[in-house]
Every structure is written in C-alpha cells, then in structure tokens.
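Dear H.,

Thanks for agreeing to be a second pair of eyes. The structure we're designing against is below in token form, covering all 477 positions.
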C-alpha cells in the first residue's frame, strides 16, 4: 500500500535533490539540464540509481511526493512518441547494467536494462554467440530497445526483441519488483517460458508501465556465412513483385530490406541541430547552450544519411545467413531470380540499419501486411504530393518514412488521415515516431490502437496513480 503523498512543493526542490542524492549517491542526482527532456518536455531532476533497490527507492520517493517518473536509457529515442504530461524525475538506467555470466553453450542470456546493446553483442561474440537484435539506433540500451519496441532487419527471421523475450523484470510505480517468464538461472531444463503476457505489454510502452530492470533473451550462434544480395528498384509495385518472389523461393532470408529514396527531388538542406530545430520546449527560443546540448544528444545519431543523387534508384537488399556452402547456393539462386542488375557483397549497403528521417523531420512508421505495403507507400506519396524517402523491412511490411519538418501542421494531419484511411481496410497502421513540437502537439501520434483496452487495464494495475510517464501511452494513458 502506498503511503499518503506529500506534494514536492511542500518540502522544496533542494530537499528532493538531497534525498535523491542520498539514494543514488552525490554524483548521481542533480537538477535537470537543457538536454534532459522527453519529447520536448523538460525534466526537473535526474536520478541515476546504482541498482534495482536504489531504483525502487527513487520510485517510492516519487510516490510519497506525487512526482512523475520517466525512465531513460541511452536517450537514442527519447524524442519518440507522445510528450508526457510532466517529467519530474528522469530515472536514468545507465547503472542498471551488466551481462549475466552463463556457460558459453547457454541458450539464453540475462542482461541489465541499462546495458548498451553493442556491449552485449561484444561480450557474446567472444563465445561465438549473439542476440538476434540489430536496431538502427547507435548506442541504444536493451531497455530502450524494448521500451520503444525498436527492431532492425533481423526481425524478419527472429522476431522483435519483445518476441524473443524469455523473462523480464521491472519495477512498478510503487517500486515493487515484478517478474514475468523466467530468468536465465531458472530456465535450465524448462521447455518454454510462461507468464510473459503482461511483461510484453511493456514493449513499446515508453516507460509508461514500469521501469525495466533486466531481460532474459535467447542467444544464437554466430552464423559462419553471411552475404547481401541487392537489386536496384524504382517503384513500390516492383518491390511488391520482387518481395513476393523472394518469399516464395524457399531462400530462408534473414532480412529483406528496402530503401526507396525521394527520387527526383532536390537534396535536402543540412539537418538542423536537433528535432524541433530553433525552438525549445513549449516553442520558446532555444539558447546556444540548449542547441549545443541537443545537437550532441544521442537521439541525433544515426539519422543523417546523405541524400541520394537526383533521380537515383532505390534498392532491395536480402541478407542470407547460415553455413558457408549453403549460403553460397542460396545466393546463386537469388542472383538468378533478381536478374542481371543484381549484385553480391560481403557487407551491408550504406543505408542498412539507418532511418530515412533526419532531426526536424516528421518521422512515420507504416505497418501493413507485406502484400499491401506497396499500396500504403503509394497512398503516402499521393497524400504528400511528392515521392518521400521510405526505408525498412519490406519482407514484413514495416517501413519508416520522412515528411519534411517544414510542412504545416494541417498538411501533416491531412497526410496522416489519408494514409490511415487506406491502411484501415488493410489491417495496417501509421504511427508518428518523432516530430517537431508543433506537429506533436496537434496531431494524433498513434492513430487507431487496438491495444488501448489492454494498456488501460495494465496501467490501472501497475500504475493506478499515473506517475510513470503520464500521457506517453496510446490514448493519453
């Protein structure tokens, strides 16, 4: 039972800082700075607890003083999604990190939520293993990948990070530790995980249902062979026909990715320092210090791909993995299927695992059955009145697109309405991933979300007082 709360104002901001420092250590609690914001909403304090117990104490402190808490990993996607109603304490998970020590042959690995994914992969690589996760955000933590439900090309074969979960541990709004599924230590000899339905709701919840502590996932052997087969493409319909042929050819691709640049359009000007460009939270002018802090923020990495030459073709790329000889055999069959314009390479294309949007753009994620993806892309281009950059997993029907940040808000709203209307009959959806502040304030970021009733039930169960990232979830939860 949570004790009766005392408003933070009744004890003073300095006292809150002192108490956070007592929990986390003097070097790990402070007043928030210019870069400590969530989708444009500035935090008041930043706390970096040294472990799950300290994180639980931070949450209990927040409960006593009716303070909201928003978790942050590396901050690579902190500008994604809807802005929270308020951010009192930003709970940085950087010290909730580490990779569980297991035998090299273990089929699973337990990882602290604040662990950078590239550190996990480097650790596993020493024993010839990997996580089948390759999200585009450089420096992302495992918790951040789960909280944003972020996926990379390998999702085609292995599923999303959420789908690969074996166990999950998190803290609810009252600081109680909740476990779902099984940890790496518990899994030995168990055929299948149980009890993950509630835990999987935290995937994509942006910290609105709990503070992730650790996750247990399947570990896979590194593939001995891998090659990329690429082919130039010019239209969404051509992509549709090629993807259908690839999926019907029994090639077992690890990934089928698409890059369709805004062909025929002039190169975009250099990206501005940060999403939202010249204005800070609330639309106020941004100081030089804020501009510098935002320009160097992790959320700005991985979104500055150079524009393609005018009139250039797109590209469809297929990753094949497995034993060297059978990869070679499958690659030969795919080259024959793609024809004379196809090519083979040992390395990924330059655009692989990169988003097509830059800071300041309105970034969209379009999801549709793979067979209907071409219709969704055509609808997007028709609504915008011009070709747009589209990139993502053509084999799964999940792609990202970029609308110029200079578009008026009503124009963005009209494009979203048109695309969502087309997708509605095709069991698809269009979500605004990131956007300038004016767009984020005025448009429906999520669109129709069938999961809202389940999220509302989970919110009432895990965070009935709505202290965790209030407003970040679909439906304003």
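And this is the sequence the design step returned. I haven't edited it by hand at all.
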């Amino acid at each position: 039972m949570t004790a009766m709360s005392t408003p933070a104002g009744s004890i003073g901001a300095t006292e809150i800082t002192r108490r956070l420092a007592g929990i986390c250590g003097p070097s790990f609690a402070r007043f928030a700075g210019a870069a400590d914001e969530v989708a444009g909403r500035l935090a008041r304090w930043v706390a970096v607890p040294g472990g799950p117990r300290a994180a639980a104490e931070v949450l209990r402190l927040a409960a006593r003083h009716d303070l909201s808490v928003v978790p942050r990993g590396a901050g690579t996607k902190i500008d994604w999604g809807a802005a929270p109603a308020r951010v009192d304490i930003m709970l940085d998970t950087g010290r909730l990190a580490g990779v569980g020590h297991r035998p090299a042959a273990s089929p699973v690995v337990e990882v602290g939520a604040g662990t950078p994914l590239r550190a996990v992969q480097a650790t596993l690589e020493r024993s010839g293993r990997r996580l089948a996760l390759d999200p585009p955000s450089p420096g992302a933590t495992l918790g951040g990948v789960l909280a944003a439900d972020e996926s990379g090309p390998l999702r085609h074969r292995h599923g999303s990070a959420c789908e690969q979960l074996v166990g999950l541990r998190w803290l609810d709004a009252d600081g109680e530790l909740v476990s779902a599924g099984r940890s790496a230590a518990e899994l030995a000899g168990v055929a299948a995980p149980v009890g993950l339905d509630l835990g999987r709701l935290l995937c994509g919840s942006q910290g609105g249902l709990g503070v992730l502590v650790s996750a247990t996932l399947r570990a896979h052997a590194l593939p001995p062979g891998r090659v990329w087969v690429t082919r130039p493409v010019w239209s969404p319909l051509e992509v549709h026909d090629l993807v259908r042929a690839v999926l019907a050819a029994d090639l077992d691709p690890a990934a089928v990715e698409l890059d369709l640049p805004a062909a025929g359009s002039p190169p975009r000007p250099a990206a501005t320092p940060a999403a939202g460009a010249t204005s800070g939270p609330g639309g106020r002018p941004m100081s030089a210090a804020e501009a510098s802090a935002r320009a160097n923020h992790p959320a700005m990495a991985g979104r500055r791909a150079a524009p393609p030459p005018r009139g250039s073709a797109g590209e469809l790329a297929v990753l094949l993995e497995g034993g060297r000889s059978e990869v070679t055999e499958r690659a030969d069959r795919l080259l024959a299927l793609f024809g004379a314009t196809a090519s083979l390479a040992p390395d990924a294309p330059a655009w692989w695992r990169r988003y097509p949007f830059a800071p300041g753009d309105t970034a969209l994620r379009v999801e549709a059955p793979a067979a209907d993806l071409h219709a969704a892309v055509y609808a997007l281009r028709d609504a915008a009145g011009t070709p747009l950059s589209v990139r993502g997993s053509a084999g799964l029907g999940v792609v990202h697109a970029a609308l110029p940040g200079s578009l008026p808000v009503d124009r963005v709203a009209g494009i979203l309405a048109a695309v969502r209307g087309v997708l509605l009959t095709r069991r698809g959806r269009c979500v605004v991933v990131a956007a300038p502040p004016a767009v984020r304030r005025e448009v429906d970021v999520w669109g129709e979300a069938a999961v809202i009733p389940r999220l509302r039930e989970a919110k009432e169960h895990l965070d009935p007082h709505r202290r965790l990232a209030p407003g970040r979830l679909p439906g304003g939860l």
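Two observations from my side: The radius of gyration is 23 Å. Residues 409-424 form the longest helix (16 residues).

Warmly,
E.
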